[in-house]
Design goal:
mainly alpha
């Protein structure tokens, strides 16, 4: 095999990683580097990816790749992710997210004498909330506003409280998660079966391990630092809930709808098919009805819908465009023979599917840690998995699942991740100190995941 394309690919990967570490715009970096790799592939007479419709001029064809990627993404996964983003923004605006957190966290007050047990219990409870509120920064900030004062008053330090709150976002799962949507699409598996049959069986032992490790890690670190539990009044005062408690059902409506009308259950004589995007719109209109009864002012209710559209737009300019540019980057790597080179290396080194899965999971964990974004690393390398798994005779899901969780886990130990920066600012602590609390439990969870999944 001729390795010049593989070497060029590795050079591009190093350059891209370096630029991302310097906080250059990831969308621009992935797009430009992808187009450059496609151009180099053409000049080296490598096989370029097939286009549905060529322009007739190779110079324009490079940009046709961008157009087709936009069309493909926006018609499917992109629209779904934008609907999720709009819904999350809307339920946050009307207070439904706060109501859900308020209801879910009340039992924690029973653990006044066991504060570190209470703090550890936040992880599985928050993980369940993360299924319905898939924004890592969004959920963490909601928990900082409602749960953080409770944990501090129970007796844990600010660092312990903020560490377990950020840990709730370590596993992106469920139909509302952008990475889950992408992973399920890559595996050609429906969302609910992917959640029930693949994600949940792998997550529960990891959640247990994190509850145990966070208990001992936080207790150990708290004994080494000065008392941080005497905080300003604003941290000791619980935020008053100004919406009816029934609003707590709104954030989980999409999940309930997708589960009830999924193929897993046969509740109805005539099968009813419901996709994630449709479930989001149904839940949105139910939320509008709730708002109508609460406010009784039609203009205010209709005006509130602007929040949904703005949320969709914000997700498009961040997550969806990142998926599109990452797709171009992936096409460039494929055209240069990077995947073929990886397969040849794996075969010559004696790596089977397990070896490749472990290596790529660790690679994505480190990439997310360096870039501060699980989406960026997963969307860049996730689309490459089907060809790798087919070449090794393995199931795509067996490799993509640990890669997906590694991406979100790596983000949780990144000092440049938005969720870490935002929570650190509210708690008035250092991002590095949060990472010190998170790195041991997340590294242990990564090792357990790879061992449990592949062996």
């Amino acid at each position: 095999m001729e390795y010049s394309g593989v070497i060029i690919s590795l050079i591009f990967i190093v350059i891209v990683a370096r630029l991302l570490l310097k906080k250059h715009n990831p969308h621009a970096i992935l797009l430009v580097s992808g187009l450059l790799m496609l151009l180099i592939s053409f000049l080296l007479n490598y096989n370029l990816p097939l286009l549905k419709e060529e322009t007739g001029f190779i110079g324009f064809d490079f940009f046709r790749y961008v157009k087709e990627s936009f069309s493909k993404t926006n018609a499917g996964v992109g629209l779904m992710i934008m609907a999720i983003g709009g819904f999350v923004a809307y339920i946050d605006k009307i207070g439904a997210s706060g109501a859900l957190v308020h209801v879910a966290m009340k039992p924690l007050k029973l653990f006044k004498k066991k504060p570190y047990i209470a703090a550890s219990m936040v992880i599985p409870i928050g993980q369940m909330l993360f299924v319905s509120i898939p924004s890592a920064a969004g959920l963490s900030l909601l928990l900082m506003a409602s749960l953080f004062p409770i944990l501090v008053n129970l007796g844990v330090s600010r660092l312990s409280a903020v560490s377990v709150i950020t840990a709730t976002t370590a596993f992106g799962m469920g139909p509302a998660s952008a990475m889950t949507v992408s992973a399920a699409a890559i595996c050609d598996i429906s969302i609910i079966p992917y959640l029930v049959d693949y994600q949940i069986p792998l997550v529960w032992p990891l959640s247990i391990s994190m509850m145990i490790t966070y208990y001992f890690v936080n207790r150990y670190f708290d004994r080494k630092i000065e008392d941080e539990n005497v905080l300003e009044d604003k941290y000791k005062t619980e935020k008053k809930l100004d919406v009816p408690l029934i609003y707590a059902i709104i954030p989980v409506l999409p999940i309930l709808l997708l589960i009830v009308f999924s193929k897993l259950f046969s509740f109805f004589p005539t099968p009813i098919s419901l996709d994630t995007t449709t479930a989001m719109f149904i839940s949105l209109f139910i939320a509008l009805i709730f708002e109508g009864f609460r406010k009784r002012k039609l203009k205010q209710v209709f005006d509130s819908l602007k929040v949904f559209w703005n949320g969709m737009g914000n997700i498009f300019k961040t997550v969806v465009t990142l998926i599109i540019t990452a797709d171009i980057f992936a096409k460039g790597l494929i055209s240069l023979g990077f995947i073929d080179g990886l397969l040849v290396f794996a075969q010559n080194a004696g790596f089977a599917a397990i070896g490749i899965g472990v290596v790529m999971s660790i690679m994505i964990f480190l990439a997310s840690m360096l870039m501060g974004s699980g989406n960026a690393s997963f969307f860049a390398f996730g689309p490459l998995v089907p060809k790798i798994s087919n070449g090794l005779g393995a199931e795509t899901s067996s490799i993509i699942l640990p890669m997906q969780f590694s991406a979100s886990m790596g983000r949780t130990v990144s000092p440049v991740a938005g969720v870490i920066i935002a929570t650190a600012e509210i708690a008035k602590v250092s991002t590095i100190d949060i990472v010190k609390r998170n790195i041991i439990p997340l590294t242990v969870a990564l090792a357990i995941m790879l061992t449990y999944h592949f062996i």
